[in-house]
Structures are given as structure tokens and as C-alpha cells.
């Protein structure tokens, strides 16, 4: 997959966790990576380059328009354009499980800002570059939580439901530009951030394994194949879709 030519791929939140798994997998497949993150970009870029692979790092706050525009400028200057945008940056592991009426207005707005405004600003900045080239792929990282109606994290669930709706509507707007827009909805994944936060120890086992058809913990590497396919030329007639990659916990 994606073997037809080297692509320029921007991964937001790409310095660690699921984002870094995406970066490393696609870089090893021969693609030129742009690692955009709030912190850790230099270290992540060095890890990729030390493998003899192509990557640049751009420190980026996805809720700041100037940062996002500088990210696009850096990618265009280094590689001459952008083929794939992976909207992966989001708030999750720093959140605590709590009833909805204990979520403050400030916390609600911060989650919405990062998880919904971020993908909007990134798409808005990247689409003109893709239109100039005549093609592109936008892949949004959603979640299966809005499909399940997962309790105790209403702000996060609502934000990821918005990402799915965003994906569908943006796909309709960009179809004539030969730009596809799809989403991947992971299940609860034992990412680096989850393990460090201890969130996996607080999550009920039904959310982690036993509700799945494939009854084991999900890891970031379980997601890379779906990403590679949606970013490839072979997926050029697929748009507006949400692909659940969760071991068969939900069926869409």
C-alpha cells in the first residue's frame, strides 16, 4: 500500500503514541513525513532520521492558526507540497473519567478546541495546497466512543462524534477537488500516553477487551494498516467513511 510513489504526509500529534506509530510506519514505507506536535518534535524527527528515513519536525499548536500555517509553509518549502493530512492531535489521556455534571465549562471548551477546531484549522490550511496539486487525502482520527455512547467522558465523546460529522460534510465539499476525507475510529488503545497516565487501569475491562470480537488489548500498531490504505491511491474512490478499527467491538 502507498508503494506507487513517495508521498508527503503531515501527522499532527506525531511525536508520540499513536501519531508516532503512524509516522514510523509510513516513513519506513518510503514516505516523507512532517511531524507536527506541541512538544517532542526534535526527538521524534531524530529517531526517524537515524533510521535513514525522511522527516522534518514542526512545533505546532493545532488550535493556533499561525502555527498551523507555518506548519504548511515548512512542509511545502521542504517537500514541495502535501499529499496526506492525518488529523491525529487530540486531548484524551490527560482527561479524567467523571460524570458529565462535574465537567467544567473550561474543560469542555478546551477539549472541543483541540479535538474539533484543530482538525478544522489544519484542513483549512492544507486544502489549498492539495487543490493546487489536484489531489489529496485527509484522514481524521475519531473514536468508537460516540458510536457506543461511552459514559463518564462526555466532552471527549461529543468531540469525536463531531469529528465523524466533520469528516462526512468535508468529504462532500472536497469531492470535486479529488480530495478524499475519511476517519479512523480506534477502540481503547494502549498508547504511550495511556500507559503513562494509568488510564488503562481505570477503564472497565469491557471497554478494553471483553466487548471485542478479538479479545485482546489494542495497540497503536493495530491502526497503521488502515491508515496506509486510506492514504493510498487504491483508496481513491472511498470518501466520507468512518472505519472502526477496534477488534470488532462495534460494527458499522
From TrEMBL:
<dbReference type="InterPro" id="IPR002347">
    <property type="entry name" value="SDR_fam"/>
</dbReference>
<protein>
    <submittedName>
        <fullName>3-oxoacyl-ACP reductase FabG</fullName>
    </submittedName>
</protein>
<dbReference type="InterPro" id="IPR057326">
    <property type="entry name" value="KR_dom"/>
</dbReference>
<dbReference type="InterPro" id="IPR036291">
    <property type="entry name" value="NAD(P)-bd_dom_sf"/>
</dbReference>
<dbReference type="GO" id="GO:0016616">
    <property type="term" value="F:oxidoreductase activity, acting on the CH-OH group of donors, NAD or NADP as acceptor"/>
</dbReference>
<dbReference type="Pfam" id="PF13561">
    <property type="entry name" value="adh_short_C2"/>
</dbReference>
<comment type="similarity">
    <text>Belongs to the short-chain dehydrogenases/reductases (SDR) family.</text>
</comment>
<dbReference type="InterPro" id="IPR020904">
    <property type="entry name" value="Sc_DH/Rdtase_CS"/>
</dbReference>
<feature type="domain" description="Ketoreductase">
    <location>
        <begin position="7"/>
        <end position="187"/>
    </location>
</feature>
